[in-house]
Amino acid sequence: QVHLVESGGGLVQAGDSLTLSCGASGGTFSRYAMGWFRQAPGKEREFVAAITWIGRKTYYADSVKGRFTISRDNAKNTVYLQMNSLKPEDTAVYYCAADSSTAQNMGVRSVNSWGQGTQVTVSS
Predict the structure, then answer these.
(1) What does the pLDDT look like over 12-33, one tens digit per residue?
(2) Which segments of the chain are extended strands (E)?
């Protein structure tokens, strides 16, 4: 299975932007749909965004649609999450995910590999 490492988290103010990156190794990156999930304290891990194997289609949670953009560079084995107009409710640990079976219906149970997570904190 592919090994994932996230980077780019941090502390920002409401309205700011932040870009997360996730590098993959140990597998064939282009064979995986890629996604981002997040988990806030006391809450379940939730889907944020997903992108298909060669990046033709993207999917977003309603809560981030229009503010977040997922993209991938298969030549660099990297997936990105551009986050704009950040809100305090976006505060969470963000996890990169690789899924060999689906992008459109990506969920916690379908993901094959997880990154270790990166903290994003948005202050008001």
Answers:
(1) 999 999 999 999 999 899 999 9
(2) 3-7, 10-13, 18-25, 33-39, 46-51, 58-60, 68-73, 78-83, 92-99, 113-114, 118-123
- Kindly state the average pLDDT of the residues 87-91: 98
3-state secondary structure of 76: coil
Q: Cα torsion at 65, 69, 70, 72 (round to 10°)? A: 160
Residue 1 has pLDDT above 90, yes or no: no
Of the candidates 2, 117, 122, 107, the one whose C-alpha atom is nearest the C-alpha of residue 47 is 107
Bridge partners of 7, per DSSP, are 21
- 71 phi/psi in degrees, rounded to 5: -150, 165
From the number of C-beta atoms within 10 Å of its C-beta (0-12, 13-18, 19+), residue 29 rates as buried
Calculate the CA dihedral of residues 103, 107, 108, 110 and round it to 10 degrees: -60
Q: What sign does the CA torsion over 26, 69, 108, 10 have?
A: positive
